[in-house]
Design a protein that fits this description.
Blueprint: E1 6-13, H1 17-26, E2 28-29, E3 45-49, E4 53-58, E5 68-77, E6 80-89, H2 91-118, H3 130-160
Parallel strand pairs: 2-3
Antiparallel strand pairs: 1-6, 3-4, 4-5, 5-6
Helix pairs in contact: 2-3
C-alpha cells in the first residue's frame, strides 16, 4: 500500500479524440492563484489542455489541500477514444505531508524504544503513544481528502468526455 494516494484511471468515450479534447478545453480555465468564495462559478477545472494531453485540477469553493492534480492523454480507439491518466497528490502537499509523517514516524520509533527499554514496570505513560495518533491522523486526512476529490473530479471528467 503506498504512503500517498495515487490513482491511475482509464475512461472510455464514444466520441472521437478531437471532440473529447474540445469538450475538455471548454471546461478548463487558466490557473488562478486567488479565488473569492462568493464569485459566480466558472468552469469546473483549471489547468492546461494541449492537443492530446491535459493537466487539470478541479475548481472548488472550499479549502482542500489534498485535491489531486490530474494528468492524462486522449487516445483514439475503433469505438471512439480512451482517456488514460493519473490523479496524484499535489507536489507541495506531498512535501508537507512527507515532513509531517517523517517527524511523527521518528517520534513513534522513539516512543516504542522507550517502551521497550522501560517496559511495563518502568515509568512510562500512555501519552507516549500520541505520535501514533499523529501519524494515523496525517495519513487518514491526506488519503480521505484526496479520495473524495479524486472521485468527484473523475466523475466530472467522465461526464465531460461523454462516457
Amino acid at each position: 500500500m503506498p504512503l500517498f494516494p495515487y490513482r491511475r484511471f482509464r475512461l472510455e468515450s464514444p466520441l472521437p479524440p478531437a471532440e473529447v479534447m474540445a469538450r475538455l478545453a471548454a471546461a478548463v480555465e487558466p490557473v488562478r492563484w486567488v479565488r473569492w468564495p462568493f464569485e459566480p462559478p466558472g468552469r469546473p477545472f483549471e489547468g492546461e489542455v494541449g492537443p492530446n494531453e491535459f493537466r487539470v485540477t478541479r475548481v472548488i469553493r472550499y479549502r482542500n489541500s489534498f485535491r489531486p492534480d490530474i494528468e492524462g492523454r486522449v487516445v483514439w480507439t475503433p469505438d471512439g477514444s480512451v482517456i488514460e491518466g493519473t490523479a496524484a497528490l499535489q507536489l507541495w502537499a506531498a512535501a508537507f505531508m512527507s515532513v509531517w509523517l517523517a517527524c511523527a514516524g521518528l517520534a513513534v520509533v522513539g516512543c516504542l524504544w522507550m517502551f521497550v527499554r522501560d517496559g511495563l514496570a518502568g515509568d512510562w505513560r500512555p501519552i507516549l503513544f500520541a505520535p501514533v495518533g499523529l501519524f494515523v491522523f496525517g495519513w487518514a486526512m491526506t488519503t480521505g481528502g484526496f479520495t473524495v476529490e479524486a472521485r468527484r473530479a473523475l466523475a466530472l471528467l467522465r461526464e465531460i468526455a461523454g462516457g
